[in-house]
Amino acid sequence: MLLDFIASRISKDLAIDLGTANTLVFARGKGIVLNEPSVVAVRKKDKRTSEIWIGEEAKKMIGRVPGSIEVFRPLREGVIANFEMASLMLKFFIQKVHNRKAFVKPRVIITVPSGVTPVERRAVRDATLSAGAHEVFVVEEAMAAAMGAGLPVTEPLSNMIVDIGGGTTEVAIISLTGVVYSSSSKIAGDKLDTDILDYIRKNFSILIGSATAEQIKVLVGRALLDNEVEEVDVKGRDLMDGIPKTITITSLDVTQAIMDSVNSIVDLVSQAMEQCPPELTADIIDTGIVLTGGGALLKNMNTRIRQEIGVPVVVPDDPLSTVARGAGKMLEDIDLLREITHM
C-alpha cells in the first residue's frame, strides 16, 4: 500500500484509448497529450539488438520498407494481436508523455471494445502493467465515449453511443453507470479502406496501398450521396502493365465502394433500437444518438443514420478524442471508476 501511495504521488495518472488505428493518451490535469498511430517498425540487427520506430515514424514506413524492417500493427479489430509489440508501444507512449522518465509508474485507465473476451481483457491489462503502470483499470470504450460526450451516465436515463473506430464499431445503450445493451462489429474504418482499395483494383485495374485508400476516404468519402461531387487524383500501379498511373476518383465512386459496409453499420444501430426496452427507446428518441470515433467524420454518416433510424444524431466536438477524454474524466472520480469496472 505504501509503495502504491508513493508511486501515485510521483506519477501522472493517464487514460489511454488504445485503438487499432491510433492511440490517444490523456494526462490528468493536461488533457490529450499524445495522439499517434498504433504502429511499430523493427529492424533486426542481430539476436540481441534492434532498431525500433513507434507511432508516426513507423506509420510512414508502411509499404516502403526493405526486407530487413518489419512493420507491425499490434492491435487488430480492437484487441491485442501481438502482445510483445503492444507492450513495447505502450511503454514508449507512457515514457514519452512523462519525458522519458523510466521510473514513473502511473495509474492507467485503458479502454477496450465491449465485445472483448476475458482473455483479451486480461491481455490488455497485462500489456499495460508490462509497459510500466502500477495500477490498471480496463473500461469499455462505449462508457468512456458517453462520458467524453458529456452524457449523464449516472442518471436513470438511457443514452445510445455509436463509436466507429478503426477496427470495430461499437453500439451501446448506457444507463445508471452500466451498459444495458451492447453489440460490436468488425466493420469499421479499416474495412472501409479495404472496400475502397478493392473497388479501385476491380474497376480501374489500379493497385493502391491502404494509406492511399484512407486518404481517399477522408478527402472525398460519403456515407450518403448528395448534390456535391468531389474528385481526387490517385496514384497507383497499373495491374495490366505494372507501370505507375494516375486516375481520378469521385465521391460517387467512394460511396459505391463503401455502401455495403455503411449499410452494415446502420443495421447494427437498427438492431440495437429493436432490442431496446420501450422505456429506454423513449429516452433515446428524446436525447438522440451520439456518434463518435473516426467514422463520425465520414461525411453524411450522421445523416445516413438519422434517415434510417428516425432519431436525431449528434456528433460531439472532436469525435476522435471522445473516448480518451471520457476515460480522462474517470481519473477525477476513482469511486465512479471502481463502480464502472466493478472493482
Summarize, please.
This protein is α+β, with helices and mostly antiparallel strands. It is 40% helix and 27% strand. It has 4 domains: 2-38 and 75-144 and 323-341, ATPase, nucleotide binding domain (Nucleotidyltransferase, domain 5, 2-Layer Sandwich); 39-72, no CATH class; 150-187 and 258-317, 2-Layer Sandwich (Nucleotidyltransferase, domain 5), CATH 3.30.420.40; 189-255, Actin, Chain A, domain 4, CATH 3.90.640.
Averaged pLDDT, please? Answer: 89
DSSP helix fraction:
25-40%
Q: Mind telling me which CATH architecture of the largest domain this is?
A: 2-Layer Sandwich
Assign the CATH class of the largest domain.
Answer: Alpha Beta
Based on Cα principal axes, name the global outline: flat
Major β-sheet annotation: 5 strands, mixed
Q: Report the end-to-end length measured between terminal Cα atoms.
A: 17 Å
Radius of gyration: 21 Å
Spatial order of the strands in the main sheet?
A: 3-2-1-9-10
Descriptive terms for the model:
five-stranded mixed sheet, Nucleotidyltransferase, domain 5, 343 residues, 18 strands, alpha+beta, flat, 12 helices, 4 domains
Task: Write up what this structure looks like.
- The protein is 40% helix and 27% strand.
- Strand 1 and strand 2 form a beta hairpin.
- The protein contains 12 helices and 18 strands.
- The radius of gyration is 21 Å and the shape is flat.
- The strands form 5 sheets. The protein has a 5-stranded mixed sheet with strand order 3-2-1-9-10, sandwiched between helices. A 5-stranded mixed sheet has the order 13-12-11-17-18, sandwiched between helices. Strands 5-4-6 form a 3-stranded antiparallel sheet.
- It is of the alpha+beta class and 343 residues long.
